[in-house]
Amino acid sequence: MTDYLLILVSTILVNNFVLVQFLGLCPFMGVSGKLETSIGMAMATTFVLTLSSLCSYLTFTYILQPFGLEYLQTISFILVIAVVVQFTEMVVRKTSPLLYRVLGIFLPLITTNCAVLGVALQNISKQNGFVESILYGFGAAVGFSFVLVLFAAMRERINVADVPVAFKGSAIGMITAGLMALAFMGFTALVQI
Amino acid sequence: MLTVLIAIGILLILSLIFGAILGYANVRFHVEGDPIVEQIDALLPQTQCGQCGHPGCRPYAEAIANGEAINHCPPGGQATIQALADLLDVEAIPLDGDHGTETAKRVAVIREDECIGCTKCIQACPVDAILGAAKQMHTVIADECTGCDLCVEPCPVDCIDMVEVGVTSKNWSWDKPQGITAVAGNIIATDRQAEVVH
């Protein structure tokens, strides 16, 4: 139980995928303009990351490993992620038009989110088990959502703040992200995994 | 050599399985049309007047779903723009004057003694609100008429008038507060119903 809790703390705070490992930066910068859209993106990413880390674990353990094809992990994970995202989009579109309006446009974006592939690959390199893989994916997604929503809230405020002309727009966004990453360095060595 | 073949085979099988899953999902979870278009269409006044530049309300709903401005509908007026803005989570903008101005609710009335029975207005009416036959006098079913003006142009003897619907005990309602309508539109659900009824 403690192990699982440590995985969560580690992925959300200590090894945060965006601010410490610098994965998934494109949605972090791109979708953080408005708080509402960033929440939509965060929900979609959480869903896809958890599901895809589960599916990629199953693919690796039950298909690639028995045949000794571990070197095919990258290409097959990309395949798995793309299929999971597509499938999710279809199901959501059919079952809940409302949710589809919130998540719809973000789902295809997530296919190319490097954090998703990163989680799948790290699950293998860390030799995580079944439950650990799911938790690792979920924790990574929660960490991603956490900083994304925080960052979006900050950018909404920065938009109305008196920023020097040269720093307006994405420049101040980059600086803010850098400061956030510095702040997250404070969590280093909180837990060791 | 064998390992290469196995690798290719595994990837091929994997792709085939995933392809089959997606293909099945595509059939199983097929969605007719776009749900957001339905919602937009429900908010439009259904006059089918074509003042927005589209052949009817539904094509305009599709155009809005694809990003067209929401202020091209004069019959709906500011209330419709506000409702669309709420639905789509965009800013409510004033009506675009190029597409016409917001007028009071009107219905077409045929001066029956002048009508020559040419049926041209019947063909023009988008909502089948005109009754009549060839060489017989025509008349408008006032309850069905959306006041879209489309029958006025084709009439060869100009016997169709657009008459403002007078206030009667059947369609009278309290005025909405001045100044708030532009901002809040139909706050109360019964406001919307009232508009549909009269």
What is the topological layout?
The complex is a heterodimer of chains A (about 190) and B (about 200).
Chain A: H1 2-14, H2 25-30, H3 35-64, H4 73-95, H5 97-103, H6 106-111, H7 114-125, H8 130-160, H9 170-185
Chain B: H1 2-28, H2 35-43, H3 57-65, H4 77-88, E1 106-110, H5 120-124, E2 130-131, E3 139-140, E4 160-164, H6 181-184, H7 189-197
Antiparallel strand pairs in B: 1-4, 2-3
Helix pairs in contact in B: 2-3
How would you describe this structure to a colleague?
The complex is a heterodimer of chains A (193) and B (198). In chain A, α3 packs across α4 (73-95). Chain A contains nine helices and no strands. The two termini of chain A are 15 Å apart. The radius of gyration of chain A is 17 Å and the shape is globular. Chain A is mostly helical and 193 residues long. Chain B is elongated. Chain B has a two-stranded antiparallel sheet with strand order 1-4. Helix content of chain B is 38%, strand content 7%. Chain B has helices at residues 2-28, 35-43, 57-65, 77-88, 120-124, 181-184, 189-197, and strands at 106-110, 130-131, 139-140, 160-164. With 198 residues, chain B is mainly α. The N and C termini of chain B lie far apart (79 Å). Chain B contains seven helices and four strands; from the N terminus they run ααααβαβββαα. In chain B, β2 (130-131) and β3 (139-140) form a beta hairpin. At the A-B interface, α3, α4 and α5 of A face α1 of B.
